[in-house]
Amino acid sequence: QVQLVESGGGLVQPGGSLRLSCAASGSIFPINAMGWYRQVPGKQRELVATITGGGTTNYADSVKGRFTISRDNAKNTVYLQMNSLKPEDTAVYYCNLNWDLLPQRYNYWGQGTQVTVSS
Fold first, then answer.
1. pLDDT tens readout for residues 50-72
2. How far apart are CA 35 and CA 62, in angstroms?
């Protein structure tokens, strides 16, 4: 069983910063990818950023230059530093952990943490 526990969400003014954390525990395959997705009511969940165990990152165009994803492999923890936040960044942010152990893909989600950007 794998568990993902997120923290760090909250209310912030436009232009402000927040740092999200997600700690994974359980039976985790050592070669994996972690990431952050977000969702607003009535819309599909969308990718924010991902990072492999080797440190390769990928970002949505809307957050490039403002958000930074990082991870601590020893702690199985992924972080999302969010700067220059905009009202359109308001969403529930979900942590993701996944790996392929063919023929099966293992995919896990956190419970979500609310980020609200408003004055």
1. 999 999 999 999 999 999 999 99
2. 16
